[in-house]
Amino acid sequence: MSLIERTNHETLRIMTSNVWGNCGDQPIANRDDKLADVFLRYRPDILGLQEVSAKVRREQVSIFDLLDSQYAEVAVDIEPRSNNYTPLLYLKEKFTVLRCGFHCYSGLNDSNSKSVTWAVFACKSSGNRFAVCNTHFYWKDDDAGKEARISNSKELVDVVAAIMPIRQIPVLCMGDFNCRASSDPIRILLDNGFADARSAATVRTSDSNAHHPYPEWDEALQIFANGPAPTGEYAQAIDHIFYAVGTASIFVYETIDCQDALDASDHCPVYVDLSFREVAATSPPIASLAPEALHICWMTDLHLVDAVAGQPQAEGAIRGNRHYYAAMQKLRQAVDTINKEQPDFVICTGDITDRVQPLASFQEEWERIVAPKDLVIGNHDLDNGYRSLVEQLGYATRPVVAGSVFNRSLSLRKGALRVRLLLLDTNIGEDGAHRVGTSEGALQEEAIAWLEQEMRTCPEALVLLFSHHGMAGPTKYFHQPDVTRYYAMVDRVAEAKPELRLLHCAGHHHVHPLAEILVRTPYDSFINGVAMISESSSFMHVLSIAQDGTWTLSYRELRTEGDDG
């Protein structure tokens, strides 16, 4: 197949390729050289690979070395796993990575190779943002395998849910799905707002299915050769590229079946040439969302300095690697938005202040909120001292629960919906004292016991847990023995209470511009929230819970004066 020239400089080329890295005793030999030649010849902007086994990475000159002059691998945290089989690569000269993540699929998953790696990219020249998910679904074609792929697809939808809401940025999902476009797992993607890029393409160079028999090993020459071309039609294809409906124009869909590609793997690389369309920049107001749903406005990591020093141009404004862009201005905008949209509840998950300072400027805005509200404290707040915080916030008469007045259990109701809201102080060590001067979260046994009691005995099936530190966040930000005990507790409760659905929301990690959603089990999910201080334009969350208990996350943009970026 001849290389098709791009239509213009704004066209992006997105490619997926299974490199046949799970090859048993077979060598890699010349296969990575051939694939690298193909990739450099076609030069995709974004390249997603599957089956990148440890064996592929251990080659004396690996495919990453061969591509290093032009491509960088998206660096994601894969702990506790030792290898990312589904890496994303991008042209270093053209793009920057704004946000990225990794999710290993639950259930059947040989070698933990079935996963999704995602990233939000920004074009250096235009500033345009888009997201790409690169994935590999489970492979066996028995009943258990089919169910596993359905589960993979549902988990992929959950991953995408963390990316789609902000600005409705374009999102693509691509990879080796190990199932046909007409199958149930793909139907799940289509039902959740995705379309098959091949069907939408103006130019389709082949009706091939891309998957084909393995190339032959030439013992004498010690190379792979004579890779056969695919013989099936696209209806039998298992390699796909999907895009969010209404966000892109697809110009070309091509299956690369040149001999170099055929000799390198049992999958031909597939790519699309596309351009992204402008889409809505803001989420709809609460009034236009489902009126019967329960709506919670959630803000985190305000890091107020004072009413002046947080302004970008003011004397004493903090610059450098911590971005305190008009923190008070953003808080006022958030409160104005809350009072205008009238949510059912408002939550702040801490780091209200950045240093030792009175809470008066925060309280003035906080008290303007008409809706019911509550908060938990963060590690920066504790620079003021726990007792001082309690007194300034007027919480001295609140009961102390598991060592803190900030540990609370509330029942939220709307219509027939019942939700248990748990607020958790994650700043207390095993000695029962609040920890000052550390960014590491902690949970003493008393707090874990309290959480277990609340989750077991509350009549609600859906539990919303809000804290400053996230137990599912980066490992360096939480005392890991406490995390182990916490998840053991959650699993015990889920076994005793099968209807349990836990959603844990936390801040602390200064995520921006997208919240990160992680699904640990079918009953336990985590949202790593967007920090309000990060960048000149940031966001407040709106968590909307339907009457059936399903939830969605949307955002409200907060911008500094004069910021039109």
TrEMBL record:
Keyword Metal-binding: yes
A GO term for molecular function: hydrolase activity
Domain (Calcineurin-like phosphoesterase): residue spans on this chain: 295-511
Keyword check for Iron: yes
Ranges where the Endonuclease/exonuclease/phosphatase domain occurs: 15-267
InterPro entries, per database record: Calcineurin-like_PHP, CNP_phosphodiesterase-III, Endo/exonu/phosph_ase_sf, Endo/exonuclease/phosphatase, Metallo-depent_PP-like
Keywords of the record: Hydrolase, Iron, Metal-binding
Pfam families noted in UniProt: Exo_endo_phos (PF03372), Metallophos (PF00149)
Recorded family membership: Belongs to the cyclic nucleotide phosphodiesterase class-III family.
Name assigned to this protein: Calcineurin-like phosphoesterase domain-containing protein
UniProt source species: Paenibacillus hemerocallicola
Lineage summary: Bacteria, Bacillati, Bacillota, Bacilli, Bacillales
